[in-house]
Amino acid sequence: MKRLILAVLAGAGIVATGCVSTVNDSHAPAIWFGKDEFQGRYQRSVDQVYSASVKVVNNNGALVAEYIPHDSTNSVRSLEATVNNRNVWIRVESVSTTPEVTAVTVQARTKHGTADAELAHELEKEIALALVR
Is 103 within 8 Å of 40 (Cβ atoms)? Predict the structure, then answer.
């Protein structure tokens, strides 16, 4: 009976974990449920929003990698960072025909793969504040 219970728990753990898509079009091992990203739109250029994103990441953690996705134009940029021992992905892209409306999407997950919505929301708001300054 104990083995059956252990087998059921192990099976549930395997089913619950897997890979999730990140905002920079890559995949990361994680638990798939839970809100882990926030988006904001600003009337700024992609370069301004991306610079603010890099500044916020450098103030709060460490920048790991920067990306320009190959399947898109130069109006899309993303980065990967580590903040408070959390994995953070940020995507900055132009969302309209006019280049002055830019969306930033922040996604955060713990090292164990669970969603960290509070950190994602905090970083997205810090980017907004950096654009004001």
Answer: yes
Query: Phi and psi at residue 101, in whole multiples of 5°?
Result: -110, 115
Q: How far apart are CA 61 and CA 84, in angstroms?
A: 7
Distance CA 107, CA 119 (A): 9
**What three-state secondary structure class fits 133?**
coil
Report the predicted TM-score, pTM, of the whole model to 2 decimal places: 0.76
Summarised one tens digit per residue, pLDDT across range 78-91 is 898 999 998 898 99
Q: Is 33 helix (H, G, I), strand (E, B) or coil?
A: coil
Kindly report the number of other CB atoms within 10 A of residue 49's CB atom. 25
**Fold of the CATH domain 2-132:** TATA-Binding Protein (3.30.310)
What would the DSSP string read from start to end of 73-130? Answer: -TTEEEEEEEETTEEEEEEEEE-SSSTT-EEEEEEEEETTS-B-HHHHHHHHHHHHHH
**Around Cβ 127, how many Cβ atoms within 10 Å?**
24
**CA atoms of 61 and 38, how far apart (whole Å):** 18
